[in-house]
Amino acid sequence: MAEGSRIAVIGAGIVGTSCAYFLLRDGHRVTLVDPREPGTGTSFGNAGVISRGSVAPVLTPGLLRSVPALLADRTSPLAIRWRYLPRLLPWLVRLALNARPARVETLARAIAALTERCDEAHDVVIQECGLGGLVRSGGWLKVARTKQTLLAATATDRSFWDRFGRRYEILDGAGVHALEPALAPDLEAGLLLPENRFVVDPCAYVQGIARGFLERGGALLGAEAQGFAFQDSRIVAVGTTAGRLPVDAVVLAAGAFSKKLAALGGLRIPLDAERGYHAMLPHPSATLRRPVYSCDHGFVLAPMANGIRITGGVELASPWAPPDDRRIRRLVPLAQKLLPGLSGAIVSTWQGCRPTVPDSLPVIGPCPGTPNLFLAFGHQHIGLTLGPLTGRLIAELVAGRTPPFDLSPYAPARFARA
Ligand SMILES: Cc1cc2nc3c(=O)[nH]c(=O)nc-3n(C[C@H](O)[C@H](O)[C@H](O)COP(=O)(O)OP(=O)(O)OC[C@H]3O[C@@H](n4cnc5c(N)ncnc54)[C@H](O)[C@@H]3O)c2cc1C
């Protein structure tokens, strides 16, 4: 695509906003299309971890074995709305098939190839958009009441980290409290991933990239994309609730809501939502310095600019189903035990949809049969981590440059034509 092309990016989450930014940087005329303000979808409410340490796919053999026990426990990190099961079953079967050991190894290698490159792309937007004030280093910490629990909970990840070169340190109780003095005194073990960074306001981070995009001449269209107009096999316009937008190319980055538009572009993608929740609580007087994951209960306490954010768990349900925040509320007393100064006064709760395909790999690349439609979604639990890198890769593909590494594992061509 020649410089100066008209490109519509559909979806202003961390992924779409990053794509728009890097495309604009390449000299294209870019319109970011979303009925909502940038960063107010799933990218609003995540735990803020820029997770170079993420390597494992969504489902591993050990996790698969523990699914029945997790579903039976009301405070466990996994819930399902059974009415949605018939619709979800084909996705679940494919997810389970991807949890075979040999397959997990292949998928982990492909995820590692992305996460090991995530920081450089973040640094571009941090520097160019002036976002340094929102990002902290200091790693992220997993803690447990016993060393046995810590080692069991991190065994799969540690085997990946050893093989894919991610640094980690195992700590005793004193080591945990030296890093996080406010945590409960009875914690006996911890594991620090020192290379991870975190964002203290993920929505402000996306809005900062959007601001950089607008200041450099990008356009924002507050509308929903509804369809495409084709000439031969190419898209010539996007149909939106605000009218027809003529284009030379389109990037589809609508997160968990990308499936219908991808099908209009000619590809049937098994995309579904791993829904997640957070609850916000005021900071205690002695607070956390970095995100902390409880291996005992499977939740994260993330120190955000405006309070402590409890996140954790996956709810399998339709992306359009109304939120049910009872499970995240049940975690508050457990969070208070982990961080004793924490008040139980919930300020707000929130629900979002992690966009996940059964092989855990994001969908990045041109849509077969529609060469000027580029797909950029399916970033599951690591969309904040991979958003800027995805933007950079999409810009390479749109320009026809050779990408810096093999992108075939993420190619949309791995799915069937609609
Ligand atoms: C509880 C929780 C914790 C998480 N923690 C982390 C973490 O610590 N680190 C990490 O890396 N990731 C984390 N994630 C995952 C991460 O938040 C997601 O992967 C990421 O936000 C997905 O970004 P996105 O841009 O693809 O989607 P979204 O942020 O959902 O953006 C999609 C946008 O598309 C728009 N849209 C939809 N349909 C249309 C349409 N037809 N026309 C125009 N626009 C449309 C929506 O309005 C929305 O703004 C977490 C997720 C959850 C739920």
Report on the structure:
With 418 residues, the protein is an alpha+beta fold. 33% of the residues lie in helices and 27% in strands. The strands form five sheets. Strands 4, 6, 7, 8, 16, 17, 18, 19, 20 and 21 form a ten-stranded mixed beta sheet that branches. The protein folds into two domains: 164 residues, FAD/NAD(P)-binding domain; 211 residues, D-Amino Acid Oxidase, Chain A, domain 2, CATH 3.30.9.10. It is built from twelve helices and 24 strands. Bound molecules: flavin-adenine dinucleotide.
Output the CATH class name of the largest domain: Alpha Beta
| Count of DSSP strands | 24
Total number of helices: 12
Strand content: 25-35%
- For the record, the CATH architecture of the largest domain stands as 2-Layer Sandwich
Terminal CA distance reads 25 Å
Report the CATH topology name of the largest domain.
Answer: D-Amino Acid Oxidase, Chain A, domain 2
Report the principal-axis shape. globular
Helix content: 25-40%
| Class by SSE composition | alpha+beta
The pLDDT mean sits at 96
Name of the CATH superfamily of the largest domain: D-Amino Acid Oxidase, subunit A, domain 2
Name the hetero compounds present.
flavin-adenine dinucleotide
Supply the number of structural domains.
2
Radius of gyration, whole Å: 21 Å
Largest sheet entry: 10 strands, mixed
Low-confidence regions: none
